[in-house]
Design a protein that fits this description.
Blueprint: H1 2-23, H2 31-44, E1 49-69, E2 72-91, H3 92-112, H4 117-134, E3 136-138, E4 142-144, H5 147-163, H6 172-190, H7 195-198, E5 203-206, H8 214-233
Helix pairs in contact: 1-2, 1-8, 3-6, 3-8, 4-5, 4-6, 5-6, 5-8, 6-8
Length: 236
């Protein structure tokens, strides 16, 4: 089952990078090589977690206790302090890969003069709020978000912007990726870093699922769907 999932994930990433490099204007004959190499490099980065900061936390804890003394219940409180180190880390595959291709996509649209910066910022801010509202904290697992819901919301949001004339159809694929990737990073992980104190997490890994993290999966799936819908419907 795990192997089937990994194969499907690799195929999805390969399909995405073929589409991504195609939008950049890479020669069709070279697309499989560029896409394959990118997927291999992304998988190679999965095991690399980079620590960005470490906090020493000291807290005062008050615990109520009940003592039974000769049948009489006595209520007391124990006052003590605890201390621990909390490490904030980033996974190279789960964070750097989506951010790198976001920066590249924005740069290309900017150079080509097809980037509507105001619309891009509006979409990104909307998705940040949406992803943050969808995020759940799973004890023992970390932060979780329903990927399918995130993909549906992102797809409908970008397609609505296309129909409203805020996003040019030929940039819809790239806009879907470059708005949802940073929005997922900020809305799902960065804003929720405060939960490291609430849940006393000793280690937090941003993008910890690597290439399977929502920071990459939501943008990849959303952009593929948006690009295909625009193409199939012949929106110009």
């Amino acid at each position: 089952m795990r192997t089937t999932y990994e194969v499907a994930l690799s195929a999805l990433l390969s399909l995405f990078f073929v589409s991504y490099y195609s939008v950049l204007g890479i020669d069709v004959r070279a697309l499989p090589y560029y896409a394959g190499l990118t997927v291999v490099l992304a998988y190679a980065l999965i095991g690399r977690n980079i620590m960005i900061c470490e906090r020493y936390v000291k807290e005062r804890v008050v615990k109520p206790i009940v003592l039974n003394v000769n049948g009489e219940l006595l209520h007391q409180e124990i006052d003590f302090s605890i201390s621990y180190k909390s490490k904030i880390m980033v996974n190279a595959a789960g964070v750097f890969v989506p951010l790198l291709f976001t920066a590249l996509g924005i740069a290309v649209m900017w150079i080509q003069g097809t980037l509507n910066l105001r619309a891009w910022l509006m979409l990104t801010l909307f998705l940040i709020v949406t992803y943050n509202r969808l995020t759940l904290f799973i004890r023992g697992e970390g932060l979780g978000v329903p990927v399918a819901t995130g993909v549906i919301v992102t797809t409908l949001t970008v397609l609505s912007a296309v129909y409203a004339g805020l996003v040019e159809p030929n940039t819809a694929f790239m806009v879907a990726f470059t708005t949802s990737a940073p929005a997922a990073l900020i809305g799902i992980d960065i804003i929720n870093l405060r939960n490291t104190a609430i849940y006393k997490a000793k280690r937090v890994i941003i993008g910890g699922m690597g290439v399977a993290d929502a920071i990459l999966l939501i943008p990849v799936m959303s952009s593929l769907i948006v690009g295909n819908v625009v193409s199939l419907l012949g929106i110009t």
